[in-house]
Amino acid sequence: MSNAGISTRSHITNQKIGWWCAIAYLMLFGNGFIMVAGMFPPPDPMLSADAVKAMFVDNKLMIQIGFLMMMFGCAFGYVFAAYLGQAISEVEGKFGILSIVTFGSQFSTFLLLGVSSLLWELLAFRPEAYDANTMLMFHDLVWLSFILLVPPTLPIYGAMAVAAFQDRSAVPIFPRWYGWLCAWALVLFLGGVGCEFFFDGPFAWDGLFAFYLPLVDFTVFIVATLTLLWKHIKRQEAAL
Amino acid sequence: MNEATPTNSNQPESVYGEIGLWIAILADLTIFTLMFATVLYYRGFNPELYVQSQARLDQFIALINTLLLLTSSFFVVLSIHKARSWDWPMSGRFLLAGMACGVGFIGMKFIEYGDKFEAGINLRTNEFFMFYFMTTILHLVHVLIGLGVLTIIRLGFPARGVVAKGRLFALEAGGVFWHMVDLLWVILMAVVYLAR
Amino acid sequence: MTIREILDAGGRVWLILLTLTISSYLLAEDFATRGGLVIMAGLFAFAFIKARLIIRHFMEVKHAPLALRIAFDVWAVVGFCSLVGVAWYGHEGLLN
């Protein structure tokens, strides 16, 4: 980065912006989805069409505001995706396959989450006027797209695990244990892919293995990632 | 174990030093145990359904599969044993034998699933078969991952006379994962196929 | 490779595992009838004994640092107790 127009100090500042964008996206997602829209615990997939319609009619405004927060969360998520891809490129020494996979897969995740949120906004747009069965179908679509987003996100964990294992530097950004964490996260997310088959039980979209365990899994992953990235920023600052 | 120490990496000296591996193994064991406990929990609501559905499983295929995986694990143990005395050709043969048993397991699994589909049973038939298919498929994914890992390790085996650094470590770590796949199946067989 | 070497390298454990597997298969033989909680607990005990043999001898945790040995034993004990506990809970009809 010596011949670049941006100084090393500015580069570190930009990384900090990326780091805080991750916090912003987590806050907007968590608060929008759980607190404002009230989607935690998830609605029962067995809900009747009328119950789904009533849910959107009753909580219309809060759902609209909650998913608007999700949309803004995605905006911050793009910045975080770029930051994460850049961190992997530092491990690789160039913008190689692992960085591109990490960035691209993360980017597409936020793109799909944005579309998912948009469909939620549609459901809350004028629920009084919509037919209850159509709403049921769209409601199934938003939840299936939300949980079935899992397979397209798996390359992130794969690429980051490979990066951690192949890193030969003395002070790696992502140590080997982090590689194992990513590998384990990848495997655990697989429990969610059964959600299109079931309306009930632990593999349905509100079940233990499709919703709660992946949520715990993601929390562990993101806390570990942000901790390691913060340490990396501090090391760069100390080396200035 | 003369020239064994791996260098030129941040790899620990022994497989016990690879803390992440062990935490991932323990975490995976815990998740699967949780899943088995979930099966037994739901079973409590309707034990008759579970007993009747379980009678439609092929316990004999499951028995053969257990024996295949145990034997496979044992071949991998022998492979590591030979690699430690630096007899790589013999180690490679044992590893291939272990992988062959793993492939046999997958073959048996497909025969079993085929029988089920032919009998009109799938993962939406009832609650028991939901658990049966989800647990066995998630286990099968582990078998496929394990076989992939063992294949990569086998491909990295040293050519004649050349000793590659870190090979023994990779073999030991891959072996630990493969044994975990084996032991998950042992508990799965007791919970899904046999427990009444 | 002599028989002795094979036995010492884990062959004995392998034979014990095969015996336990076939025993638990025979123990649960009549698959269509509902057995008792005792048989179920026995099957789980066999399974976790086998699991522990695999952990100790195949994964070679018996030579591992103490913390690792304890961690695996804790998993085995907690796992066995929770499976039997949940099975007992359902068996007693406490869920209905």
Describe the overall structure.
The complex is a heterotrimer of chains A (240), B (196) and C (96). Chain A is mainly alpha-helical and 240 residues long. Chain A has one domain. Helix content of chain A is 74%, strand content 0%. Chain A is built from eight helices and no strands. The model of chain A has no long low-confidence stretch (mean pLDDT 93). By secondary structure, chain B is mainly alpha-helical. Chain B has a single domain, classed as Cytochrome c oxidase, subunit III, four-helix bundle (Four Helix Bundle (Hemerythrin (Met), subunit A)). Chain B contains six helices and no strands. In chain B, helix 3 (59-84) runs antiparallel to helix 4 (88-118) and helix 3 (59-84) packs antiparallel against helix 6. Chain C has one domain (3-91). Chain C has helices spanning 3-27, 37-58, 66-91. The model of chain C has no long low-confidence stretch (mean pLDDT 90). Chains B and C meet through helix 1, helix 2, helix 3 and helix 6 of B and helix 1, helix 2 and helix 3 of C.
Oligomer: heterotrimer
State the order of secondary-structure elements of chain B, H for helix, E for strand. Answer: HHHHHH
Q: What integer is the average pLDDT of chain C?
A: 90
Write down the CATH class of chain B.
Mainly Alpha
Label the structural class of chain B: mainly alpha
